[in-house]
Specification:
about 375 residues, about 40% helix, two-stranded parallel ribbon, Aspartate Aminotransferase, domain 2, alpha/beta
């Protein structure tokens, strides 16, 4: 890969921690199957259980209160969860990851919730929807943090509301886990989704984390791995990297406090340069690394191409559409017209992002902005 590229797409996948790289490099030369009974099998199984304990510690839960089920991805985890509750009436946030939205769209027993202009769930709408629904089985799904805007929901309050009306609540915490404190005892959410490659681990491992009393059925049948919840030979390399990355979360969260200042500096410089540029969800609590910012009247595909040519990796939003540039249903749900939400890109910083890189990006943003408008002037007046 080109080492000169400045990577600002960490919400799509974060850079692997150096400690994780060293950890995994020691494991890769030796083959092992965690289901094998010999020494290598037992060793790799031990690594999986170590990762499970590490994740539990960082979520403030234990093996008596919760189950941590390893899967291959956040998408698989969300599919497992949503399909298990397909017989319930579902109350779904409209700004969820596509792995939640696309399942919900296939079902008839769904109420899509409302969000305000900042992307915050309308609590009164949720209360009324739960109160007026006659189903005995209710299931709420609201992501802790949105991958595009970075908006952080008040999951503790939403859990209280859900439980008051007898609903199970799920939260996709793929974007929040590792960036902000996630204490499941305090938040009291019933079932969550987390992922390795968002916190500095390898691709190929994620988890469904649920309260022990919440029953679910497996999507994948076979050898009965993961206590029968998810069959298939475990990817212990990726799972072990997940556990190692989880060990580093406390330090990572402290580092993200400095990253937030860098993110705010980026936004301030761009808005000072182009006053009509907008930062979505700026007036509410957001992930410390995430900026969803407009370049007025310049469509996001044009921006993406220009930034890519100049050596910057940014995105138009969630990396869930196989490389297709699509209009943001998140911004549409927040009440913005397609004319407005077609000119936003997401800049998501990582722990290794530097001020020098951000200064270069700001300079490139100004060049892209001016070059596009200069071409328009040449067309109009030439």
């Amino acid at each position: 890969m080109n080492k000169n590229v400045i990577y600002l797409d960490h919400n799509a996948t974060a850079a692997m921690h150096e400690d994780v790289v060293r950890h995994v490099s020691l494991l890769l030369p030796d083959p092992a199957n965690p289901s094998s009974l010999h020494s290598r099998g037992r060793y790799s199984k031990g690594l999986i259980e170590g990762a499970r304990k590490s994740i539990m510690r960082n979520l403030n839960i234990d093996q008596l209160s919760h189950d941590v089920i390893f899967t291959s991805s956040g998408t698989e985890s969300n599919n497992m969860i949503l399909k298990n509750f397909s017989g319930y009436h579902l109350f779904i946030s409209p700004i969820e990851h596509s792995s939640v939205i696309k399942i919900a769209e296939q079902m008839s027993n769904v109420t899509f919730l409302k969000v305000n202009e900042e992307g915050v769930i309308d609590e009164d709408f949720l209360i009324n929807a739960l109160k007026n629904n006659k189903s005995d089985n209710k299931f709420v799904s609201v992501g802790h943090a949105n991958s595009e805007t970075g908006i952080i929901q008040d999951i503790k309050r939403l859990s209280e509301i859900s439980h008051e009306y007898g609903a199970i609540i799920h939260s996709d915490m793929v974007q929040s886990f590792g960036k902000i404190l996630v204490d499941l005892k305090d938040l009291d959410v019933d079932i969550v989704t987390i992922s390795s490659h968002k916190i500095g681990g390898m691709l190929g491992a994620a988890s469904v984390v649920k309260k022990a009393e919440v029953g679910i059925r497996p999507l994948i049948l076979g050898g009965g791995q993961e206590k029968g919840f998810r069959s298939g030979t475990e990817n212990f390399y990726a799972i072990s990297s997940f556990g190692k990355a989880a060990e580093l979360i406390e330090d990572s969260i402290k580092q993200f406090e400095d990253i937030e200042k860098l993110r705010d500096y980026l936004e301030e410089e761009i808005v000072n340069f182009e006053g009509s540029s907008k930062v979505y969800s700026k007036n509410t609590r957001r992930l410390p690394n995430t900026s969803y910012i407009t370049m007025p009247d310049v469509d996001n595909q044009t921006q993406m191409i220009n930034f890519d040519i100049r050596g910057f990796c940014v995105s138009t939003g969630s990396a869930c559409s196989s490389g297709v540039v699509e209009k943001s249903y998140v911004l549409k749900s927040m009440g913005f017209s397609k004319e407005v939400h077609n000119d936003a890109i997401r800049v998501s910083l990582g722990l290794n992002s530097t001020k020098a890189e951000i200064d270069k990006f700001i300079d490139a943003w100004k060049v892209v902005h001016d070059s596009v408008f200069k071409k328009e002037e040449e067309i109009n007046y030439g």
